[in-house]
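Hi, here's the filled form for the chain we discussed.

Project: internal
Contact: R.S.
Residues: 227
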Amino acid sequence: MTVILVLATFLVFIVVDYALNRRKTLATVPVEAASAGRPQATVSLGGDYVDGFLVPGNVSYHPGHSWLVRERKNVVRVGADEFAAALLGKVESIDLPKPGQWIRQGQKVVSFFRDGQKTEMVSPTEGEVMEVNPEVLRNPAALRHDPYGKGWLVTVHVPDEESTARNLVPKGLVREWARQSVEHLYSLQPSLAGAVAADGGRPAEDLLGSLPDAGWKEVTAEFFLTA
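And the returned structure, exactly as it came back:
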């Protein structure tokens, strides 16, 4: 039922955004190229925070809390947003799709493991996996410490960028979507409001780790739309 309510809220967001911006198209923001046409491994971040969570305005978000940024034509970099990384906390290992694998938007493609449990995240886009991030496989903590930079997950060749963009959170509604995610988390776990404020208003490194009865697998699955 909760997943249905989340999806219904997201549908309302899309309708409102379409009414306000009928002539605007949703587009990801390109990452500046480094040398020899090689894209940077990090995303240029602004000071965009929503209730303590970093929500850069220059990336696009899937409602399941993955993100993507356009590196160059038909190529995007994919990761998990900081809200997702804080919920995942101290994961022990990560499974990523293999280069050459075709993935579909909304398909479960990334697995996170912790304390003998697994949770999954869906792809924000459709296309062929070009590259996986070896750093995050060697050191899963990179996902939590730098989710929009060294903690990126995969790059994907996307033949139809326009079609993919239609199912992302509309740019003008990202902050409200992020705020509602935080508020819903607090409604599930009221004690977490203090955990986010524990370090100058920033989220604790391992939000659910301090609550043994929080249900890590269940909570993450709900927000990642995999329940």
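Let me know if anything looks off before we file it.
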